[in-house]
Amino acid sequence: MFDNAEDPAVQGRRWAKAAAYAKDGADNVVRIDFAAADEEDWGEYGKQRVVWTAPPAVNQDVAPYRYVALRMKADREMEVVFTLMTLPEPRGRRDQPHFGFTAYLRPTAGAWKWVALDLGKLELGVEGENAYEKAGKPARPMQLTALRFCTNSKNAKAAFLVDDIAFYRDLPAALKDKVQEP
Prior knowledge:
Elements: H1 8-14, E1 19-24, E2 27-32, E3 38-41, E4 47-52, E5 60-61, E6 67-74, E7 80-86, E8 98-105, E9 113-118, E10 123-127, H2 131-134, E11 143-144, E12 146-152, E13 160-168, E14 179-180
Parallel strand pairs: 9-14
Antiparallel strand pairs: 1-2, 2-13, 3-4, 4-12, 5-11, 6-9, 6-13, 7-8, 7-12, 8-10
């Protein structure tokens, strides 16, 4: 389990600026606050609000896993770019050369929705030189520095919640029909 929003001690280690534990009815969840997130200009894609999980001291090994799954909920239809990031120096600057594997989440307004992602089918993105090459040019996430959630700045005030983020070797039967194409 990456995070299920149940252990307050994990919150400080796992979540950085613009994300925190919250309540949704009786459920403990993670609220992604895009309004408090850093804004980045992504050129032709426009201004984006970007939230990263807090980096660990060393990258986490996700090589044994085939899937990542999470529950998500929003107050509007929107697109959230979800990326599993790898930085050579996990606690280093975010502008260092890095790479990540991306999927496009599309929550709908109001209802919780499960999504499972096949780690071998995510879209590769590389920023800067050498980080990807030094990592051996992996075809899927192998070492995880952080999860990154981004959306267009027009969605900055959206309520976006996530819960039960977990990595799986094999998907439980209840999630087999939730696999989304990137």
